[in-house]
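Data deposition worksheet. Section B asks for the primary sequence of the deposited chain exactly as it was used as input, without tags or linkers unless they were present during the calculation. Section C holds the resulting structure in token form. Section D is free text for depositor observations; keep each observation to a single sentence. Incomplete worksheets are returned to the depositor.
Section A, Depositor: J.P.
Section B:
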Amino acid sequence: MQLPYRPLQIGNVRIGMPAVQAALSGYSDLPMRLVAREHGASYALHELVLDEIVLKKGKLQQQILDVPEQDHPVAGQLMGTMPDTFAAAAKKLVSAGYDVVDINFGCPVNKVLGRCRGGYLLQHPDDALALVDAVLQAVAGDAPVTVKMRRGYDDSADSERRFFEIFEGAFARGVAAITVHPRTVVQKYVGPSRWEFLAKAKREAGDRIVLGSGDLFSPFDVVRMLRETSVDGVTVARGCIGNPFVFGQVRDLLEGKEPMRPSPRSIRNALLRHIELAQEHYGARWLSSVRTHAIKYAQYHDAAVAARDTMVRARDEAALREAIDALFLRRPDVDESRPLSPHDAVVPAMSMAEEQ
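Section C:
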């Protein structure tokens, strides 16, 4: 039975399937986005970047501003503190071909907070909305502007009041959508996210577009969030690292089909494709970026932690390819996809193993 859902649209950017790839610092580079698109992601965000870096000439700026034809629709996510610099960076992203500019008021990393960026701004609605004003004026309607927020800096009533001051103020000024991660900045990634807060934010927004985030580790989680909170879409973050297959699985669920667990061969093919794209994008410096992802692909192996450790030990291209083949090409007897179950959401288990 097909599940009812409204195709996602942000401003004039048509997206379709309401599950998109989040901006992931250190992960959502061009190779990751393209692999995700090839497995069903309809929209993706570039990893969070500092406005000053977008404006500073050099190889990093060139990589950020490299938006090939096959990487659309795509958003560039920015953080910073100065309206003029933020606005100039936003304009630069749009000129480079980004379809959407996303403003980050959610990053909980200590060094970001210490520089009065990201989630720090949730304590200062006037400063946050000044950045929104600056970006909207700079972009001047050439691309939709969106905002990413956490549900507040902490659990206090004042924090929630400030959240809604920014939330309503940003919509009133003309942002096209707001993504809400229902953990606080102080909480970082510890403890469950409060999906009931997402439902509250969506009720406040009415017909305006709200996306949800937090604790999405399987297509079943995605569909449950859409049902329970009525958000217009979701951004899949940690749950899609090493797991581009989740987007096709979500589409299957929404279309009333049975989602499938990827076969070992399809996992191997995705990893080899990631290597190919990273070599094109980074040149000789590709290996470290791919290893970061390859470690996470191990989550689909029957012995996930041992497979992860095998990937960790691969220190050159030959060793990495050998590890990929050993893990995902050695068992042709199980080289068939099988139905996915909620128990196959193994990312949290991998995370706990990493913390022990």
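Section D:
The domain at 8-260 is CATH 3.20.20.70 (TIM Barrel).
The chain has two domains: 8-260, 263-336.
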